[in-house]
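Predict the structure of RNA polymerase sigma-70 factor, ECF subfamily.
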Amino acid sequence: MVQEELFIQALQKKETQEQAFKQLVSQYKERLYWHVRRIVLDHDDADDVLQNTFIKIFRNIHTFKGDSALYSWMYRIATNEALTFLNQKARKSGISNEELQDNLIKNLEADVYFEGEEIQLKLQKAISKLPEKQRLVFNMKYFEEMKYEDMSQILDTSVGALKASYHHAVKKLEDYLTEN
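Done. Here is the predicted structure for RNA polymerase sigma-70 factor, ECF subfamily.
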């Protein structure tokens, strides 16, 4: 923990901020990219959201008080940026979030960056049918193997509620995959 405190101090000091931020980006870029990508599904959109996330982190690092782990704080920013992006994209297109999810899945099938097999595509389709919170919890637990305590900090929800959301998500996914 002492190491993280020193790193945060380096991020917050003008003299060391640039170098520390480069290290932060290098350390978290890939993990945050995949977290965002699982939310927005599209590679280019994920890149845009990730860039906005790092800009927001850079601009607001001085407000970070250490109440949670640094990565939890960054994941919360990335999650909020991705959800805001999807809401804006749906609103601009004049469609519901559910319709947007359907469109994103159709685009995923044609995405050159999607390297998945048919079963992975089927899983992504099933995940896209989940309510937003269940989708987030499932992705964080299943793909990122995140602990419920960490998710609780990121999503600002109790561990019990997260476990219930994950359980419901898994049940819905099993049902969807069995039927389709």
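The chain has two domains: 1-115, 117-180.
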